[in-house]
Queue: 4 jobs
Job 1
Amino acid sequence: VNQVANLTLVSSACDMVSTAYASTKESHPYVRSVCDAAEKGVKSVTEATASCVQPVLTTLEPHVAAASEYASKGLDKLGETLPLLQKPVDQIISNTKELVSSRVADAKDAVSS
């Protein structure tokens, strides 16, 4: 999970969502009250669940470690194959807009001639 969270694409997307969430809460008092209630609910459920889940996690720890190692190797390969994962969202959006604009301009030129 940490390795995925540290991918530039994922971390920049999380930052964008977090900023939008905070801005929305700040701008809209009714949304803020709903979000605050939801956050408290999630926190309570998380705290209540943590003590119940801990014995299961302890039992499964060797299996989780093996799965984590396997997933880590897969993510390394994926990162090599898809360099896009190392770019921030805003750069990907900008590059995509430029590519689409260029293709549309090429299509217009082709139709004109």
Job 2
Amino acid sequence: RGTALQPLFKMSYSCSKVGDPHPGQPYKGGNFCAFLPDNKEGLKTAKLLKKAFERGLTFRIKSCNGEERVTWGFIPHKTSWDGGKARNGYPDALYLHEVSTVL
């Protein structure tokens, strides 16, 4: 499969803020892992994803079965090395172009 970058995000329990579904309510965090190819375009995308994360654009809080929890936001991430586009994995020849456009 080759070498890959693996950004890992760990979101803890915390309280939601204004603009979230239920401001002031606690939410459940989680571990989120995404994959990028280890090449020039993948490294460029990783820098853009880091900026998006720092600006609070990577995740959102969603109400699910009466519980607030962190989920992926609207920026597409590859969460698997296989399964293709339908399973948020590779191969997906257009992914890096598409995510760069979103970012």
Job 3
Amino acid sequence: LNTQMKPSALMRYLGQVKDFEKPKITLEQYATDKEMAANVINLIDEEVGLEGNTVLDLGCGCGMLSIAASAMGAAYCLGVEIDEDAAAICKKNVEELECEEVVDILLADALTAPLPHNFFDVVLLNPPFGTKKNEGIDIQFVEKALKCVKEEGSVYSFHKSSTRSFLLKKGEELGAETRAAAQMRWKLSNTYRFHKKKAVDIDVDVICFTKIKKV
């Protein structure tokens, strides 16, 4: 039985996901674009498959990627979110979209939460880019994700395209086969007071880190 949503239906479904009410700049909170989320989830499903698999969403925000993974037939998805307000919106989204049987939300710091190692089939990451006071935090998220994913499992993470060569090298140092799976334009809406434009397009890479099996 195929429990997966078609791409067009997935886009409509994700259109119901509510975003941050009061985003926090210290946490680099930006709404995940639904079109990009749908494209990424479809890409992951084509490459490694989501149906019947366990998924971890580190720093899940309002739950866009977790909910998308559940719509593509994931057996279980754990979203980890440090911000109480975002976690509350995420919980509400999960309930309203009736995927609470598949998606659990854990209110915790994704980097320090005692998550099981070598457990998840796929880990999803939309980490802070580390552009403000959080320099290097994106790599910390990748390191945590690689601890939690199974051997030969995959981590899919969003990063600025300008950091691609650094990320590819870093992934190999961390024991993963690393490649740029896709490049996308992320339309960031005017979120904070210091933003001068209504929206800005940022080139974003979807980097895939496949954990190498230990011999």
Job 4
Amino acid sequence: LLNRNASFWVFFFSRSSARLVAPLGCLVSRQKHTLPDLPYDYAALEPHINAEIMQLHHSKHHATYVNNLNVVEEKYKEAVAKGDVTTQVSLQPALKFNGGGHINHTIFWTNLSPNGGGEPKGELMEAIKRDFGSFANFKEKLTAVSVGVQGSGWGWLGYNKEQGRLQIAACANQDPLQGTTGLIPLLGIDVWEHAYYLQYKNVRPDYLKAIWNVINWENVSSRYATCKK
């Protein structure tokens, strides 16, 4: 899901509590996380998402999550070396927020394409029909969940590996889907205002209507095929 620099820490959550476990050896030896390149130009998704939004979203917002993640991981590594459990615990919200921001956006960029839109094909389409009745039904439900996110967050299509079915979920802020729900992320829709405000103002439904025109179904289908193995 991420570039090879972004796989060095892991969230483990239980129903009653949330705790972050950092593989200590990896924290000591890891390379810094880096901002992934977009697979298209900033203007490539116009008119649905304009170039100014894409430039700011990628080079400023996502870059900030990456930079902050590197900083907090260094602090966490120092706390581990000192055996300072209190500091380790205090850093976990920042790891979750910035790490989630990096994970979510890295998926998001690949979920979009200037050649996107339309409907998926093959196994993914069959699974959507099986689990939601029809593609139109699925689209309506994911749009409604995304519109309904209070404040900032994400709407997701995920795969429930235990049940072998697709599932729609919403996550607040930058909470990573798999780390907080156990669902494997297939398609994420960013509904933070920085993803659309410059073009769509406060009318989130207009942004969500437009984004379906640039969904990269080949990428989503590939993710679905991978997680079923």
